[in-house]
Each structure stands twice: as C-alpha cells, then as structure tokens.
Amino acid sequence: MSAVVTGREKVRKSPIQRLLRTWLRFSAANKFDDATWDPRAAQEEKLLELMERNAGSDYGKEHGFDRVRSIEDYRAAVPPNTYETLEPYIERTLRAEKNVLTADDPLMFATTSGTTGSAKYIPVTPSYLHEYSHGVHVHTYRMFTDFPDLLDGKLLVPSSNDVEGESEGGLPYGAISGYLTKTQPKPIKRFYALPYELCKVKNVESKYYLMLRNAVPADIRLIVMPNPSSLTLLAEKMSVLADELVYDVRNGTVNDAYHEGVPEILLKGFSPDPDRADELERVLKRSGTLTPREIWPNLRLLSCWKGGTMPLYLRKLPDVYGDLPVRDLGYMASEGRGATPLVNSGAAGVLNVTSHFFEFVPEGERDDPNPTFLTADELESNREYFIYFTTSAGLYRYDINDVVRVVDFYRQTPVVQFVRKGQGMTNITGEKLTESQVTGALVDTVDSGGFDVQHFTASVEWGEPPRYAFYAELGESMARERIAELVGAIDRALSARNIEYEAKRDSQRLGPPVLRRVAPGTYQALRQKRVAEGAPEAQVKIPQLSTDMEFGANLEVLEEVSAE
Amino acid sequence: MSPATVADPAAITEVFARVPLLARLSDRQRSRMAQLATTRLYDEGSIIVKQGDTSMALYVVLSGRARIDRESEAGKSVQVDEVEHGGFFGEMGLIEDMPRAATVTAEEPTECALLAKWDFQNELRTDPDIALALLPVLGARIRELDDQLVRLHHS
C-alpha cells in the first residue's frame, strides 16, 4: 500500500462501484422512497405479505393469519407481545422445531444486548435478513449519494461476532452484523478495511489494536461504529499505540502483545509499507501523536448513534475527528431496523415503512388496559410513543420497550428519534426520573460548567431518606472543589427538567445526591465484562440511569462528594 | 393532531412564490416543487418543529398562525417571530444540513405545506437552472449577513 493520496481530483468510478450504486438504488432506495408518499399503503402491504407467508406456521394457525385482510383484522387476531409471551415459541425454534413462528427456518439467532436481564434470542430467517438489510441498503445508498467519493477509499465498519455459541438445535447465535459481513460478496468486501475474522476477537485491547493495524495504512473515507464512545476509544488507542503502529506498518508486522486468542488469519498478510510509515511518522513528529483527523485526510463521514444517552460522547468527537459530519446510524436493534436517517442533522430517521410493520402507543397510555394503537400515518409531531414491531423474525406486535419521538415528516412518513428505553426510569418517591432527563441534565451541566465528565451513571440508593448516587469517570483536571460544583449543578439541572424531582428534593423526601468518582478505566472494564458475557462489543451501552440497585457495588470508588 | 391533508398544488405554487429561496424560480419550476409538497394540519398549541431536531423539510404556512421561539444557551426561550399565510420556516434546511434553529408552535389550527430537502435537491440535480436562480438569493443573504456584522461592529 502506498501513501494516502489527498486532494479532490475526480476519480473515475470503477464498474463495481457503479454496479453497487445501481443495485442499492433499484433493490432498496427507490422502493423505500416511493413508499414514503403513502406509508399506510406500504404498511398494509407489508403486513399482509407477512400474514400470507406465515399463515401456515403454528403461531399463524393459532391466530388465524389466513383470515387477516386488514390492520384491524390483525389487531383483533393477535395480542400485543413481549419477549416473554413469545419465548415458548422461540424456545421451540431454538430446539430446531420447524414452522413455529415463521414459515422459513432461521439461519441463526440474534442475541440482544439489553441493558438488563438475560439474553434474548431473535430468529434470523432469510426473509428477516432481507428486511433488515433493506434498511442497511437505503442508509448506505443515501450516504454514497451525499458523499460520492466514499468508495474511492475504504470503509471502516467493525462488526460483532455472529457465532457466540450454538442453540440446542445446532444453529449459531450472535450478532447480525457479523453474519452480514461474513456473507458479503467478494467484490464488495474489497471496499472494507477490516476482515470478518476481527469480530471473533474478544479482548477489547487486541480488537482495537488489530482494527487500527488494518485501518491505519488505508485511505479511510467512512467510519461506522454504533456507539460514539467506540469512536473516541478508537482515536484514544490510535494515540496510545502510535509508535507501535508506525513500526508495524513499516515492517509489515503485528505486535506480539496482541497475538493471544487471535485467529491466525488476522496475524498474516501484512506487507511492509515504508511510504505510509513515513507519512505517519511525519504526523507524529508534527503533532506528537496520531489522530484520525490527520492520518485520514479523506475521511468524509462518521456514522453512529446520536440519540438517547449518546450526546455526552458525541461532544468529544470534534477533538479528534475535527468538524466532520456525523450521521445517525438509525434506530435499530436485533429485533429490527426502525428508522433510516437521510440527513446528518439531528438523531432522527425516516420510519422504515418497507422493512417491517409498525404500531405505536402514545407514551402515557402504555399501562392502560386498552391503549390506543396507531399506525405510521396517524402519528403526531413532537409526540412520544412506544413502538411495536411485526417482522419476518416471528415477532408479532412485539413491544420492544422503546420510546420514540416524532420530530418531522418526510413526505407523508414520520421521522422518528429514539428517546429512551421504557424501563429506563427510576421512581423512589414518585419523581419518575427518565434516562433522557438524566442525559439532558448531564449535557446541560457539562455545557454550562465545562466539566470534564468521561462516563456517568445515576443509580438509586435506599436510605433515610433515599437518594441518587452518581458514578462518574472524570478527567484528571477535576479537583474535589470542581466535583462538588458538578454534583450540585447536576442536582439543579435534574430539578429544572423534572418538577417532581425538584419537589421531592425541596421536601427532603429525596436526599442530596452523592457523586462517586470511579477509577480511570472503570467503564472500559464494564464494557469488557459485558463483552465477555457475550454482548456484541459495538452494541454495549452502559446506562446513564441504572435501575440496578447494585450498579456501583463492585466499582473502585476513589472519592465521594455530596451535594449537601 | 398533525394529520396529512389533501394538497392543492395551485395554492401551494402561489404561496411558494413568497418564499425568497423559491421566489426567482419560474412558474413551471415552482409548480413542479408544489407537486412534490405534502400538506399537514396542526392543532392549536402543537409543536410543529423543535429546535435542535433533525431538519427534513421546508414548511410554508397555508393557513393559520404559528409562533417561532428560539432558546438561548442559558435555556431561556424567546419569541423571535410569528408566521401566518405565506410565512415559512426551515428554508435554509433545504440547502445546508443543520438541525432546526428554532421551535415553531401553532397558535391556532395551522396548515403547512412541506417540501422535503431530498425532493428539492433532486429537482436541483435535474434542472440546473434552479441552482442558477438561487445564486442571487444566496448572494443577497450573504450581503445581509455582512451588513448585520458591520452594524454589530459599529454598535
């Protein structure tokens, strides 16, 4: 590999590039685009297709899919479901019983990495994979259209392990992203900087080193990582490992320290690249370190989650990536792809009306005995809803426990943004504090006070009176007086965002919160622990509001400061 | 509520002529844009768009009235404008990729025409004369900003 070429000279697109764009356009983008004019019709079509295909499955027969002719028929025939209500069917599928939830057999099971609870297994059938990929293709096509030279270099898109284990019936379970990477056609693989086998590396240190070892010599144009904290971690590792990386690029080697537990194939195939090493060395001499902004001058776009609890991490991206545009990755989970962002601003995307069938319950009605179920065309602007998925994975009227907000409309189709998990709420004394309120208060505080907060989690703590404990990994500059300011400021910001919190604090039914500074590296260790437990690394989210009373039990606390 | 309503392209074409960004387009070009617009009705008190959110479309008020508020960094909300028939917001969102700059709330039942950024830009790609017609408008916008800067400097 020679040095990265900078400049914006027009590069003639290769036939494979042109073919890929045309295929994405005609196989996915145009269909999606046309459907946004009439989401009701698109959704009815999708639902009836699902009913017809799965009418012969056990679940379909039990619920009369063959008699469903409309959305109303469907609601009358099928009750809303949770994972628990579908679990008996999924367990039979895990034992390789056929025709249980869906007519087509699963290829694998996607495991979810929910913030709490045990793993859930989502049957990934060929038709579900098609629905899921449809959203990926629309997203990809729009990125390629808006940034036409992305494919003139390489794409840095890590995936998670698709084979974490085997079901009782002998099918693999793991992450869909790994499966999609593994099954990519060969001509497409050449656009990607990372080999599939990287998803097998469990150790976070080794994984990031190898990611960089593959990506640093390349002309990276796009980075896609679900979690923005992974983007900052990538930059941090690049800086820490700068000397080793330059050495390895120059000599075509892989550092011995990262060989353990790594598939053999990941240690081979590197050639010495003295030109690129010289280039990196010049950056190192000039800036004292390596940063993505400097070593990848043609990097055009980042894509990651921007909603929910992510704003704290997003704020750190410009330090290492400059003013690059950041496009949301889309509202998605193992259970389905909810929305596809078409622009860079904000964190919302257009509802994927051609992927799955969706229903919505107004946020305040969720616990009603007969909540109102709405379709995509019935949503109102700036309202929050619980979203229900019906997909080819055999999830019928499935409550994913997510709250989304409608922020705009694209033609007639709502543009939605993930707000929070339904369960992301704590309520000790009636304050009903949500994770989005905690994130908002934290961002307000960091913005107004310039506090260096790396990671943060609020957790409830029983006592007389009960109170909130804030666990935080802070920058070195944060002295004790600043921490006292910080905890006081967060307390006030929470009061400003939640009048019940304010009332409970005023009446002292909630005690003053306490901030516990945890040791550097604590959150990375928490991530590593979740990965070791089988969660896909890219998807691990440590909550900013934990309902787990034991959240801080095993963390190394360096100091404690109360808002008193 | 913010249900979709039945669009009247002729009425939308007429209102689009008042949007500075679209004012210099030919009748044919504006009519084409009007065909691509959708319409939506907002109840009194409902938020049409919110500051900081993803911006996907230009909104033009067909009937009713809406208040435009901007929140300062200190979190204080100040009314900066009001729009009624022929008024508009989000027009720069058709060109640049920035979040909504203000919150717009319907003060009475308000019907808006929405033109999606993607559709606007597609028209731009297929009819480069549209881009040429936009240049003087954008030039005027730059001059206006320059003047504001000078005034600020001398105040």
Characterize the biggest β-sheet of chain A. Answer: 6 strands, antiparallel
Count of separate DSSP helical elements of chain A:
19
Q: Indicate the structural class of chain A.
A: alpha/beta
Rounded mean pLDDT of chain A is 91
| Shape verdict of chain B | globular
Characterise the protein shown here.
The complex is a heterodimer of chains A (564) and B (155). In chain A, helix 16 packs across helix 17. Chain A is α/β, with parallel strands linked by helices. The mean pLDDT of chain A is 91. Helix content of chain A is 37%, strand content 19%. Chain B has 5 helices and 9 strands. Chain B has a 5-stranded antiparallel sheet. In chain B, strands 3-8-5-6 form a 4-stranded antiparallel sheet, with no helix packed on it. Classes of the chains: A alpha/beta (564), B alpha+beta (155). Chains A and B meet through strand 15 and helix 16 of A and strand 2, strand 3 and helix 4 of B.
List keywords for this structure.
heterodimer, A: 564 residues, alpha/beta, six-stranded antiparallel beta sheet, five-stranded mixed beta sheet, B: 155 residues, alpha+beta, five-stranded antiparallel beta sheet, four-stranded antiparallel beta sheet, 9 strands, 38% helix, globular
How is this fold's topology laid out?
The complex is a heterodimer of chains A (564) and B (155).
Chain A: H1 15-35, H2 39-54, H3 58-62, H4 71-77, H5 83-94, E1 108-111, E2 121-124, H6 126-146, E3 154-156, E4 165-166, E5 172-174, H7 176-182, H8 186-189, H9 204-215, E6 220-224, H10 228-240, H11 242-251, H12 274-287, H13 292-295, E7 301-304, H14 311-314, H15 317-321, E8 326-328, E9 332-333, E10 336-337, E11 339-340, E12 349-351, E13 357-362, E14 384-390, E15 398-410, E16 413-421, E17 425-426, E18 433-434, H16 435-449, E19 453-461, E20 467-474, H17 480-497, H18 499-506, E21 514-518, H19 522-532, E22 545-546, E23 557-562
Parallel strand pairs in A: 1-5, 3-6, 6-7, 7-8, 19-22, 20-21
Antiparallel strand pairs in A: 1-2, 4-5, 9-10, 11-12, 12-16, 13-14, 14-15, 15-16, 17-18, 19-20, 21-23
Helix pairs in contact in A: 1-6, 9-10, 11-12, 16-17, 17-18
Chain B: E1 4-5, H1 9-16, H2 20-23, H3 27-36, E2 38-42, E3 47-49, E4 57-63, E5 65-71, E6 77-84, E7 88-89, E8 103-106, E9 110-116, H4 117-126, H5 128-154
Antiparallel strand pairs in B: 1-2, 2-9, 3-8, 4-7, 4-9, 5-6, 5-8
Helix pairs in contact in B: 1-3, 4-5
